[in-house]
Write a structure and sequence with these properties.
TIM Barrel; 9 helices; binds S-adenosylmethionine; about 30% helix; alpha/beta; about 325 residues
Length: about 325
């Protein structure tokens, strides 16, 4: 029986763990200027928790509510140097579904050690194939490194998915080429509606492209059929006439908060119930009873629909 449950019956099985606020890209929807760009080989100095610190909190949470999945994210999780050690530690806690969300920039260099440590699944962000568009969105001129990382991940047998945030007047023209690219590698791609977070919190409408608009663009080149949504999935999925699977994460058009099964742990050891929450709860150095209360308090901040946040996603963990 779940010990921690909210008034809507929601509990959690997935913990999203941020390993750093730092990132090796400075995506325009995430940070205001490229000044926050961290070098690709930078140390993750902002990751206050050590491997032991992360494992201790994850183990305690897992004792209270069994976790099925840990997603490692950030910031950029591949900037966290002892990542293989952390993955091995999570596997040893008996949690085998360990996934990563990454911008792919350091993937080629780190892939084999991550796979060897026990990583099975990876989501790679790819907002454009065209180098100029990629640069205009990420402020980094290194698309080849990302594409090489994707090829290597696919060849390695890891489960790979692509994520594309669609931004008005930036990359709508990349939707079909990206869909074809993903289909050519037999991997699903998910197009994300822009969430009102960070400095775009109050002005995100001018960049927003809806699920309907994304589907209209795809339907100009192919017919599509909707696949029934699985419980707690962030994405709605479709299949094209040629058998290509793609998804839309329609945070605004079709909110999926009511069956959300996620909690978040940031790199300072704070638990967040929701991306649009303004409060977090420190999980460091707590007894099991205290931690259970903290998890319940965080869960109680979960919203019924996303209401936006002044915090950029990189600070909480996307
Ligand atoms: N650095 C990693 C990456 O790029 O995948 C992990 C962290 S990033 C915050 C996780 C995902 O959130 C990425 O796919 C990114 O594009 C997406 N993201 C960031 N800000 C967003 C926003 N305001 N709306 C929608 N998606 C966003």
């Amino acid at each position: 029986m779940n010990k921690v449950i909210d008034p809507f019956g929601r509990t959690f099985q997935t913990l999203r763990v941020s390993l750093s606020e730092s990132c090796s890209m400075a995506c325009v929807y995430c940070v205001h200027s490229e000044s926050s760009l961290s070098e690709s080989n930078a140390d993750s100095t902002s990751a206050v928790l050590t491997v032991e610190g992360y494992l201790s909190i994850i183990q305690s949470i897992h004792h209270i509510t069994p976790l099925t999945t840990i997603r490692l994210t950030g910031g950029e999780p591949l900037l966290f140097k002892p990542l293989p050690e952390l993955i091995k530690g999570i596997v040893n806690l008996g949690i085998s579904s360990i996934k990563i969300t990454t911008n792919g920039l350091q993937l080629l260099d780190r892939l084999s050690e991550l796979k060897e440590a026990g990583l099975r699944s990876i989501n790679i962000s790819l907002d454009a194939l065209d180098p100029d568009t990629f640069y205009s969105l990420t402020r980094v001129n290194k698309i080849k490194k990302v594409l090489d990382g994707i090829e290597a991940a696919v060849s390695s047998g890891l489960e790979v998915k692509l994520n594309t945030v669609v931004l008005k007047n930036f990359n709508e023209h990349q939707i079909v080429p990206l869909l074809e690219y993903a289909a050519g590698r037999n991997i699903p791609i998910r197009f994300l509606e822009l969430m009102s977070m960070g400095y775009l919190n109050k002005s995100h409408e001018s960049y927003f492209v809806s699920q309907e608009e994304i589907l209209d663009i795809i339907q100009r080149v192919t017919t599509i059929a909707r696949i029934p949504r699985s419980m707690s999935s962030t994405a709605n999925y479709w299949m094209t006439a040629r058998g290509w699977k793609f998804g839309v994460i329609a945070n605004s058009s079709e909110p999926f908060c009511m069956d959300c099964n996620r909690l978040r742990l940031d790199s300072y050891g704070n638990i967040w119930g929701c991306l649009s929450s303004t409060v977090s709860y420190s999980a460091k150095n707590k007894t099991q009873d205290e931690l259970q209360q903290i998890l319940a308090a965080a869960l109680a901040t979960k919203q019924t629909a996303f209401s936006g946040s002044a915090l950029s996603m990189k600070y909480i963990g996307g």
